[in-house]
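Lay summary. Proteins are chains of building blocks that fold into shapes, and those shapes determine what they do. In this project we predict the shape from the chain. Here is one chain we studied, written as its sequence of building blocks.
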Amino acid sequence: MMLFNIKIHVSSYVNYVFLHRMDATLREITSLVKEVNPEARRKGTYFDFSLVFPDMRSPGYRMREIGTTCSGQRGADDSKTLAQARYYSV
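And here is the predicted shape, written in a compact code that computers can read:
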């Protein structure tokens, strides 16, 4: 099982965002988070996206960063999709 972790550079974290499309972009996911988290709506808020998955060699988990977006600014990772990041849901 692979989890999707979003870290927001404000005082809170978003634990779960339910996605139904593999072609969702990081910018679209950013918009979803901003709908449910008022603190994340401020311009200049950074969103770091990571995949979290079990480590098969030892107990615990591994994390792989897949991109960053910024509220109110365009960035290189905005159009990256979950499929391009090799995300899959179980």
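What the prediction tells us: The chain is about 10% helix and 30% strand.
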